[in-house]
Amino acid sequence: MAVVFDKPHALCDVATTYCPGCTHGIIHRLVAEVMDELGIEGNTIGIFPVGCSVMAYKFFECDMVGAPHGRAPAVATGIKRALPDSVVFTYQGDGDLAAIGTCETVHAAARGENITVIFVNNTIYGMTGGQMAPTTLPGQVTQTTPYGREPEIQGYPVKVCEMLATIDGTALAQRVSVDTPAHIREAKKAIKKAFENQINKKGFSLVEVLSTCPTNWGLTPVDALQRLRDEMIPYFPLGVYKDEAVWNKEEKAD
Amino acid sequence: MERVLMKGNEALAEAAIRAGCKCFFAYPITPQTEVAAYLAKNMKKRNITFLQAESELAAVNMVLGASSAGVRTMTSSSSPGISLKSEGVSYLAGSDLPAVIVNVQRGGPGLGSIQPSQSDYWQATKALGHGDFQLIVFAPASVQETVDMTIRAFEEADRYRMPVMILTDGFIGQMMEPVTFSDETPKIEPKDWAACGHKGGRKHNIINSLFLQPDELEASVDARYEKYETIKKNIHDAEIYMCEDADLVITAFGTTARVAKSAVNQAREKGIKAGLFRPKTLWPFPVEELNAACKTAKKVLSVEMSKGQMVDDIRLALNCRIPVEFFGRNGGNIPTPAEILDEIVKISERGL
């Protein structure tokens, strides 16, 4: 019988620790499929963050290194500078990347560091039980914004792709979503490009993936996807914010 | 073998290159500036990576990355910067990663001063970060010792897979002395645990300090402490000077020990039987050596550039068998031989 659908090799054959309906699983699969397609698993080092994906070292078959909260781009920089021909990616949530790790993110981009960053934005701190994140939307109820986020008190969400698009060292800043099959296909293309950019030494590449957190949003998985469409995409529009090689400009990708 | 006149910080940087340090990450701070400047100047011709990080946090985590990848790596800073690095140092220890951390101490707390100090003794030997762990801590007292200890630090870090600290200060870092470098090239063992890509040839390597199950974390910490017991047996070193018949043993490390040695000589000229005990390793603390040095001692005087930190370890190592007194200067002040001699005379007059 012909196999029409299989587990990517770069994904470990274990159950993940993610909640039912969480879209981390889809994003993991896309990263693993890209590793398979590019044949890079054996040369790749992944950095797992602090947050829900802190267990990602159990899910990817490539070598994995744990970073302190927010420091994944610095750890990735250390590895990439030590082994310039390896493929290094970080997998970070919004609290990790856009709050405690903003400095590391911005400066890795400014250096044009040849790394790939998968940024999962679900507008909440999931692992710690649903506190306000740097990307929590105005009005969004969380454990630490029980009356909804009030910009006058808690300020505004951070728009990571828009911010990084202003930085000279950024080669790719693209926001995608995984709420529909069409969006998932688009997300995979972006993730693949972010890895190809690194292989072709084009500069810092980040893909922001809008993601759901049914558990901490207090919604069913289906309603959570609807919220992503109705509330998140209007505030965080999908699209390519920057796509321009920083280094190695003449060499074409692929 | 070549003999050259060098600043402590520059000699330290040169020693790191010779020890096979491939990646150096740091953030500017006085008085460690020359370490970074020397490495920046030499990076291209000596084939090493120097990257000035955006923060101390980033620098130490770049070290964590490079160490995970399997190369020899180092960061240097001074007291306030070391506080910031403490997060990364705890992760290095918890992930069993080798690294060399240099603290060219200055006065504290807070922004403190930029003059030499020894007030990070507790931080270095007791708690450079959260959780149960230790660093091996070397305390050089000369430029030559800075070189020798830096080379050894890389070896011990690799041997025991843990962070090692060179605890020096703004005085030794800034002063010039003649120094000799060995021509030996280091023998670096391959690291089969490194996260450098499995190349399809092995199971994936994981560098991690997370253990959500209490029993797993306890087993991991216990195993590390068993390793520390081996280290305690293998690494302990001290200079013992004129202690054979000493009534009063002065204990001091680093810069302070140099000054204290002059005071001991002057005390001897006055007929006071003084001696000097200088630990070269602060963790593990040279307990046996101290007890051997204090065989005839009736009193011990700990001299430090702090409000008294090593003095705790002196009392513990002697099991409070001998009265231990303290004299120190802080804020960036170095005690003078006359001040220490004065203290020795006072103790002697009160009766030994």
Compose a concise summary of this entry.
The complex is a heterodimer of chains A (254) and B (352). Chain A has 9 helices and 9 strands.
User: What is the domain total for the residues of chain B?
Assistant: 2
* Count of strand segments of chain B: 15
Gap from first CA to last CA of chain A: 33 Å
Largest interface: A-B, 33 and 41 residues
DSSP summary: helix tally of chain A: 9
The low-pLDDT segments of chain B are none
CATH superfamily caption of the largest domain in chain B: Thiamin diphosphate (ThDP)-binding fold, Pyr/PP domains
Number of alpha- plus pi-helical segments of chain B: 12
Quickly give the structural class of chain B. Answer: alpha/beta
Radius of gyration of chain A: 17 Å
Helix content of chain B: 40-55%
- State Rg of chain B: 21 Å
Domains of chain A (count): 1
Provide an overview of this structure:
The complex is a heterodimer of chains A (254) and B (352). Chain A has 254 residues and is α/β, with parallel strands linked by helices. Chain A has a single domain (24-243), classed as Rossmann fold (3-Layer(aba) Sandwich), CATH 3.40.50. Chain A has helices at 24-38, 72-82, 94-100, 102-110, 151-154, 160-164, 181-199, 214-217, 221-235; strands at 44-48, 63-66, 87-93, 116-121, 124-125, 131-132, 170-177, 204-210, 239-243. A seven-stranded mixed β-sheet of chain A has the order 2-1-3-4-8-7-9, sandwiched between helices. The longest helix of chain A has 19 residues, at 181-199. The radius of gyration of chain A is 17 Å and the shape is globular. The mean pLDDT of chain A is 97. By secondary structure, chain B is of the alpha/beta class. Chain B folds into two domains: 2-234, Thiamin diphosphate (ThDP)-binding fold, Pyr/PP domains (Rossmann fold); 239-349, Rossmann fold (3-Layer(aba) Sandwich). Chain B contains twelve helices and 15 strands. Chain B has a seven-stranded mixed β-sheet with strand order 3-2-4-5-7-6-13, with helices on both faces. In chain B, strands 10-12-11-14-15 form a five-stranded mixed β-sheet, sandwiched between helices. In chain B, helix 1 runs parallel beside helix 2, helix 1 runs parallel beside helix 6 (143-160) and helix 3 (56-68) runs parallel beside helix 4. The radius of gyration of chain B is 21 Å and the shape is globular. Classes of the chains: A alpha/beta (254), B alpha/beta (352). The A-B interface holds A 41-45, 47, 54, 57, 60-68, 71, 74-83, 86-87, 103-104, 107 and B 22-23, 25, 49, 51, 53-55, 57-59, 61-71, 73, 87-88, 91, 95, 195-201, 204-210.
